[in-house]
Write a structure and sequence with these properties.
The two termini are about 30 Å apart. The protein is globular, with a radius of gyration of 24 Å. It has two domains: about 220 residues, no CATH class; about 220 residues, no CATH class. The longest helix has about 40 residues. Helix 1 packs parallel to helix 6, helix 4 runs antiparallel to helix 5 and helix 4 runs parallel beside helix 8. It has 19 helices and no strands. The protein is mainly alpha-helical. Its main location: membrane. InterPro entries: Poly_Biosynth_Transport. It is a multi-pass membrane protein.
């Protein structure tokens, strides 16, 4: 019981630290992006983003290995085998160096070819674009080599390191903006080199922190062929899942462009920005809890693992629902205030995408549990194939004259099917019963959603569209969701835990 309490406190502390980190970075990003756009100008800002995107296209290779590294380091840590942990870290670092070399080769061949032959860049800015590409490649290499160190920090659940180093990174980017305004050289090239310098410094901070706190992060040359093969095999099937995600997301964007033109692409881009901002807060909570799921599996504590999965799914949903419900009601008002001129279709796009995000939060524990087992081949093959069906089904819908938002409805429907398949595939691997998942998660969140929506809906329908309605709806949404979650969405032990914490804080306040 004491161990469970300690884990709960650690998860809560890590979540709060990551929330603070996200909020600070979001505020800095909103400010710096505006200044950078005004300083560089629309053309140079576009060049920086599109040229950097050439390298980002290869990111699914590294993303696959990142999940493998995270799983193996966390698993070894959960087992308490320091010797194996050292071997896993060193092998992961070797693999990431090889990936970095591959990215350099692809960037300097395919990337250069694509930039010079396919991209629309003014002739007088080609030299600047070349240096942006070189800096983007170097920055990507630095980030790739940082992955094992970042994975080690997450595995040890030292989220304070992420929070503090991320804050340092945000402050350095503020300094970059200042230098960009002060110096009069080619600002696009200067910006690219300054961002590269920031990436290098942050990389040194992470490695320095790991070397001081984690013995296994000090690289030792080892060659374990079987471990190398196992980790790359794990990453290979994860790559299939990541590739399917990239294909259906970018494929949908291309389909919308073919059938409706760039205005609809702009609407999707805006919707994605808002969705990502909301989703990031929930990702922080999941990042704090995911290592615990892997560690309990490594220890063979399947009952505790199932409880963590249920808790992760429900709490992630509640957090996202709390943030999303005001946005779902007041989508039009929020977008109008932020953008002034809102592209057509943006409101309906965003609403459907938020619903898909809510559904997706319930699948995260299933994906983490699958990675914990290491048996990802069948899982990734089946789920990846189902998700790839989003693209052809969306194409058929659009060919038959369905509206633009139909592709997002298809995404939601296919994600729902994939959710059921995930549970069925995991049942023999971790002994979890589908009916338990439905009872402890889907039933609870469904009741919370139905009851929470009633009061905000009545307020929304009976007030005029003004600033007063916006603040009233937001307030009522928070109170309604918070109350219903506490009364219906939590177990009795969870309610007792929260009540005790609130009373403890209240008593400390009185003593002051």
């Amino acid at each position: 019981m004491e161990n469970t309490s300690a884990n709960n406190k650690r998860i809560a502390k890590n979540t709060l630290l990551l929330y603070f980190r996200t909020l600070f970075i979001m505020l800095v990003t909103l400010y710096t992006s505006r200044v950078v756009l005004n300083t560089l100008g629309v053309t140079d800002y576009g060049i920086y983003n599109v040229v950097g995107g050439v390298v980002a296209m290869f990111g699914f290779i590294n993303g696959s290995m990142s999940s493998a590294t995270q799983r193996y380091i966390t698993f070894a840590l959960g087992k308490g085998d320091q010797s194996n942990l050292q071997k896993v870290f060193s092998t992961a670092l070797q693999i990431h160096v090889l990936i970095a070399v591959l990215i350099v080769v692809l960037g300097e061949t395919v990337g250069l070819w694509f930039m010079y032959t396919q991209m629309q860049i003014p002739a007088d800015r080609m030299d600047a674009a070349f240096w942006v590409l070189q800096c983007s490649i170097a920055s990507t290499v630095i980030m790739i080599i940082s992955v094992p160190y970042n994975a080690d920090i997450v595995a040890h659940e030292k989220m304070s390191a992420f929070a503090y180093i991320s804050i340092l990174e945000a402050v350095l980017k503020l300094a970059v903006v200042y230098m960009l305004v002060v110096f009069s050289s080619d600002k696009l090239i200067l910006y690219a080199f300054l961002i590269l310098a920031v990436q290098l410094l942050i990389r040194l901070c992470y490695s320095r922190y790991c070397n001081r706190h984690f013995e296994e992060s000090k690289y030792r040359h080892v060659w374990d062929k079987s471990l190398f093969k196992e980790m790359t095999g794990f990453a290979g099937w994860s790559m299939f899942g990541n590739l399917s995600s990239v294909l259906f997301s970018q494929g949908l964007n291309m389909l919308l462009n073919v059938f409706f033109g760039p205005v609809v692409n702009a609407a999707r881009a805006v919707a994605v920005q808002v969705q990502s901002a909301i989703q990031q807060f929930v990702t922080n909570f999941q990042m704090a809890l995911n290592p615990q799921i892997t560690k309990t599996y490594a220890k063979g504590e399947m009952g505790e693992m199932h409880k963590l999965m249920f808790r992760s799914a429900r709490f992630s949903f509640y957090l996202l629902f709390l943030l999303s419900l005001p946005v779902l009601f007041e989508t039009d008002f929020i977008l109008t205030v932020w953008l002034k001129t809102v592209p057509d279709h943006t409101v309906v796009f965003l609403r459907i995408m938020i619903c898909t995000s809510l559904l997706y939060t319930l699948s995260n524990p299933l994906m983490v549990a699958n990675q914990s087992t290491g048996k990802v081949k069948r899982y990734q093959a089946v789920c990846g194939t189902i998700l790839l069906m989003i693209l052809p089904i969306s194409y058929i819908c659009l060919r038959f004259g369905c509206p633009a938002y139909s592709v997002f409805i298809v995404h939601f429907a296919v994600e729902s099917i994939t959710q059921i398949v995930r549970m069925l595939l995991l049942r023999p691997l971790i002994g979890i019963r589908v009916q338990d998942y439905l009872k402890h998660i889907y039933l609870k969140v469904s009741v919370v959603v139905i009851l929470s929506v009633i009061l905000p809906f009545l307020v929304y329908e009976n007030m005029d569209a003004t600033v007063l309605r916006f603040f009233t709806v937001c307030t009522v949404c928070v109170l309604s969701v918070g109350t219903i979650v506490y009364m219906v969405g939590l177990s009795s032990s969870e309610r007792e835990f929260i009540y005790a914490k609130v009373i403890g804080i209240y008593n400390k306040f009185l003593q002051k």
